Amino acid sequence: MGLVNLPLASGKDHARAFKKLGWVLDPKRRGRGKHLLLTKAGMRHTLSIPDEREVKRTIIAAMIKLACITEDDYLRAFHGR
pTM for this one? Predict the structure, then answer.
């Protein structure tokens, strides 16, 4: 795949895709500045997604790697397939 296939979208859109994969917004923690913090039971990392109109593909690629999922799984969740 590659970075070119990742969508340029808002932080909220990307967070919605991660939610479909089992991640939840952490109500107990606030992100520094404008970030959305997502956690998942059994995962040691917290995903911190900027709450911006357009999030860089490199940031989303890093979050996909931290979430231990494949790009294909992420794209299916993002596009609702």
Answer: 0.89
